User: Which sequence fits this backbone?
């Protein structure tokens, strides 16, 4: 018979797992794919993603002019130059969406419209169950599923500790086999799942954890500069000049996104240092579109302490922090989460069937 404390932990573990199982399976399946999101996207769309490197890329201004001719003068919202010579550029247009362009000859390779593609859907499913709402209910559900996962990990460790089972019993079948599998997978993946869970909770509750980090570190967020209406007759500076200004503002960082402003706003440039392995980068430069003045330059190396913690947390969660080997580990850990949830459900269902199974006649009449 289970001791009262152990029985309480078992009951908590069982019913919390049953309540959160579906969300954890979604989290694990989508997370295992998201670890390699850029690589999978390029593999699925090779024709638009890869180019034969040439001697010299066209300027952004030249590519922009070609796109406006091809797409009937549509407004360009962003330039996304690649940082690898064999990866195509993207030009984001107001109506048509992202256009993939060969930066060496200006040829259009493909268009990514407004609808969600498979990996977009997987991403949104992981973050918010692909449920868009003003209150962001889907994100809240997945964030609390992360909290449930943390409780399951800690309660599971408590329940595992007395037996410390890390292998499957030879010749085991049925519920015993699933029980051994559940224990072995759980303890072997415990550290990695704990890392994924803790970093995921920080991301999910960023409205709480963000201000808390600034308070704990005694740092303050970067002050966003004011922008003013354009002077009469002023014309925006060329986008290539903006990219060069951003490079000079953060030496060593490579620009990979230039957001084109509307009148009165500023160019927003996203950059990535060599050690910034997250696809979105964590460095930014704001440039006055008329004067070229740098209004803000915040690099991941010199960002406020709290922001650097956020950067590191996201890199750990996605597995980007140590490149491909760490991505593989985090992807496998996500698969282990699915296996844990599935094996737990199977054990529970077998337990239910065993309870409902009628007793043998001899025992029933004794």
Assistant:
């Amino acid at each position: 018979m289970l001791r009262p404390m152990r029985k309480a932990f078992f009951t908590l573990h069982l019913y919390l797992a049953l309540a959160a199982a579906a969300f954890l399976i979604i989290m694990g399946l989508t997370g295992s794919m998201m670890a390699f999101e850029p690589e999978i996207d390029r593999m699925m769309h090779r024709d638009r993603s890869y180019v034969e490197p040439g001697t010299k890329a066209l300027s952004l201004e030249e590519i922009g002019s070609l796109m406006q001719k091809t797409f009937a003068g549509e407004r360009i919202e962003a330039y996304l130059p690649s940082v690898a010579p064999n990866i195509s550029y993207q030009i984001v247009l107001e109506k048509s969406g992202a256009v993939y362009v060969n930066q060496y000859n200006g040829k259009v390779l493909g268009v990514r419209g407004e609808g969600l593609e498979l990996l977009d859907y997987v991403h949104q499913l992981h973050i918010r169950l692909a449920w868009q709402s003003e209150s962001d209910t889907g994100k809240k559900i997945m964030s609390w599923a992360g909290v449930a996962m943390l409780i399951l990990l800690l309660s599971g460790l408590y329940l595992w500790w007395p037996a410390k089972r890390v292998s499957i019993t030879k010749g085991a079948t049925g519920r015993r086999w699933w029980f051994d599998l559940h224990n072995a997978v759980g303890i072997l993946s415990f550290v990695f799942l704990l890392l994924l869970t803790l970093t995921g909770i920080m991301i999910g509750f960023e409205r709480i954890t963000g201000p808390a980090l600034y308070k704990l570190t005694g740092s303050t967020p970067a002050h966003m500069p004011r922008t003013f209406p354009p002077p009469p007759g002023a014309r925006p500076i060329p986008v290539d000049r903006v990219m060069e200004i951003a490079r000079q503002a953060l030496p060593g960082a490579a620009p990979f996104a230039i957001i084109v402003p509307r009148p009165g706003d500023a160019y927003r440039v996203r950059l990535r240092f060599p050690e910034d392995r997250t696809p979105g980068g964590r460095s930014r430069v704001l440039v006055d579109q008329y004067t070229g003045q740098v209004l803000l330059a915040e690099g991941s190396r010199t960002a406020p302490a709290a922001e650097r913690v956020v950067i590191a947390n996201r890199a750990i969660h996605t597995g980007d922090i140590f490149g491909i080997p760490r991505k593989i580990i985090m992807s496998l850990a996500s698969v282990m989460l699915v296996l844990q949830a599935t094996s737990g459900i199977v054990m529970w269902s077998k337990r239910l069937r065993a309870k409902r199974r009628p007793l043998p006649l001899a025992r029933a009449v004794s």
Q: What stands out?
A: The chain has a mean pLDDT of 90.
